[in-house]
Queue: 4 jobs
Job 1
Amino acid sequence: MNSAMIVQQAALDGVTIVLGSTGALKANGDEVAVSRWLPKIRANKRDIMAFLRRAVNLITPEDETAICAWLAHIEESDPGIISEVLNKCRAEPKARDYFLWRACEVPCSKRTGGRDTCPGG
């Protein structure tokens, strides 16, 4: 199982694998599920970290602004949930596409930091 598959399969099992603010690998979720995944995560730590670093480039700063604007629009303010959504968007193109689609519900000026026009929308 490659690093992308480990991150995706762990997510399906309720475990979110992210790079912490210090660059350390973190696994969050149900304790039992995290315990099940820790041996595989540890065995593949270097590859998972490299995958997550590359995945950060899947969304642009403008994409993050639009997604955060949508989360604010639906009154989601929990920092943990916001971080989880952004990390999911960084790791999974389908999640990124879904949340960018939802961001289209937000008036353009709020999605773009006050600009009147939106690229592609």
Job 2
Amino acid sequence: MTDQENNNQSIDRVKSYWVGRSTGEYRCPNISLFRFLNAIGFKIVEKTILEVGFGHGADLLECKRRGGIVYGLDLNQQAIEDLSELNNSHKAIFRAGVDRIPFGTTFDFIYA
């Protein structure tokens, strides 16, 4: 099996698990992420932030609440539709390792 075939199989497995899956109720943001950012002195205000695979979007929305300019990528259309609090231009369908990042900007912080 070629590397491309292996890559396609991996993409198909991930897609079959995540695509169409409901993101469900609101969930608490990852407290450890924000403690870490605070510990290293990273201030979110006016920083451009990208979350790859935002799922339910709690961390992304917390970054926005703290004054960040937020962008999100997810391979699940349902996640994108469920995250109605973000402008559509700041979230997009994305298959990591396959698609180019669709935003014409640079980022101060990228996390997954």
Job 3
Amino acid sequence: MTNAPSPQPDPAATILGIETSCDDTAVAIIRGPAQAGGKDDAPVTILANQIWSQHAEHAAYGGVVPEIAARSHVERLDGLIEAALREAQVGFDAIDAVAATAGPGLVGGVVVGLTTAKALCLAHDLALIPVNHLEGHALSVRLTEPAPFPYLLLLVSGGHTQLVVVNDLGDYARLGTTIDDAAGEAFDKTAKLLGLGQPGGPQIEAAATGGRASRFAFPRPLHQRAGCDFSFSGLKTAVRQAALDVGELDGQTRADLAASFQAAAARHLADRTARAMALFSARHPDQKNGYRLVVAGGVAANCTIKSALGALCQKEGWTMIVPPPKFCTDNGAMIAQAGLERFRRNIVGTQADTLAMAARARWPLADPVAGAQRVGGGKKGPKA
């Protein structure tokens, strides 16, 4: 009797991810299946996740200063790469590809990360994978749990507020976006207005804990307008006017304003998301594995917003998936994940193509370039 051969383990790929699009310098190393197939949505192993936040460096200015951010990336990035390699206990000989944010973002910071990635790939003969920062957020949920395509994405961060149908890797359809401020920007500006400090999201949420959300009746932006777009500028103005009407702000009034603003923002996000869910259901009427709403971006960590969206999903029979907080904010692991997804789809081109790619301040997720971008270079193949 002949014994059946033992099944061979799936080959694995190890990807180093670099993120420098705003005020967080981040480097991560992940390992996951190197070949597309039945397990290509399986959670990966996160070998290292290093982040340096610049909040203290920008605090005196009430917001992110692009020049300071870029200089900080230059000063910190090399050290974070070394720290990530130590944490993962690997050298560059174990890395299959380097994925780096190529946009959108503060272009000075993007240049720092992308140029560093190009240098590493040339020095170590590795594949370079330029990544759309928004795609990193869109795929971040697949770092930690299965999330098969398609799903509806609500991306809420300091610079972006969008509702996107994630049909497949590189196949995105935007249903709505902000027509003025992003959600995170509105939180930051409101926190500054109320004298709560930065970053605004956590400060607003902390202050709102002791506040009465019913004290101020703020408007519901675009409530009667069709579509799935967002608007936060009018809500921010309403908070300013309410603060002026009150006059001198005491601690309780600040808390009440924060709670009322936070509740209004959560209602607005839920209202527009409900419209997008209806559109998604109409496009995918026979989705056998159920409907999923993925909420990503730094604002996704807000408990009031998560509660409002969770109640909406429960009402509609959807499943809501929110990545762990450390993967909601900007991080290198989500960039490495986007790189891994492209690597295992065997989207391979020439090293010259990717080394020639310039940093982009603007890069819509639905732009065909996001889907067509080719992995470049490197003589190394996936390792077992």
Job 4
Amino acid sequence: MTRVRAAKVRGPGLVDVESVALRELEAGEVLVRMAVAGICGSDLHRIYDGYPDGVDEFPLPPGAPGHEGVGRVAVSRSREYSEGDSVLTVPDARWARCFAEYQIVPECFLVRARADTLPEIAILAQQLGTVIFALKRFWPEAPGKLATVIGGGPAGLLFGAMLRRRGFESVIVSDLVEERVAAAGRMNGVTGVRAGSGAVLEVTLEHSGGRGADLVVEASGRDAGREDAVQCVATGGRVGLFGLPQGRNAMALRYDILFERRPTVLVSDDTQHEMGLWSFREALDVISTAPGDWSWLVTHRFALDELGTALELARSRRDGALKVVVNCQ
């Protein structure tokens, strides 16, 4: 039986890489030789804090919880994919095993990628796909004037970029980390705001003539960010909740504001089960057409054996870290 190297999360923040045996493929599955895996904020939640629904038990399966992956098909028992195909792997939490040299993936969680797009750029299509999927839900009609994004990590920055591409006149992106605020401000038509002390509300009101944002997207994964989102929305506007819950605790929101302004509040999750995976396909087209427009998001690269260090950097957000990727071979 073939053995490969894969990450093993043994407890909260306890990560190493070990040799594990690969099982035989079943019908409809492929074995992907992983090129790169991306670190997502949800990975950090699971590794350091436990998943919000409390279902995880340590140790996690080998390769988990990585779910942003790009590689090539090594062995296929699928009618859709052949050996050598470049693929974006978008497994759900049950199948997430991207932090490994090889990963077994059901064909329903694969999207064919262009071979001429660098894997470390194509990897951005996984998170961008979740953003595109969310925007279909949050704002399916003609663009509004102002959108405010709470949280300027990779997802929040992708929201900022896509909202501008979709025609919003101006976009505000807030974050607590100065480098992320600066990154937001370098995008055309996007204003970066250092969060805290009511700054994002102040700038939102300033940009909207006191009305508030047509759409507020919460991408911080923090209760304080959701409180800011409610404060910033205009009467009759929309609040899109994208970030993971911050644990299982109760959260207080200003119901008087919700009652007065009557916004539509929407939640986005589970892009991996979208029929046809069209949001991920659109994301790959966007990334592949102009890779230089997106490459700046990848700021740090590590080897698989350095996964623990990579995770700590992504968690600390120091050194200007945005998207941190792991070379799996």
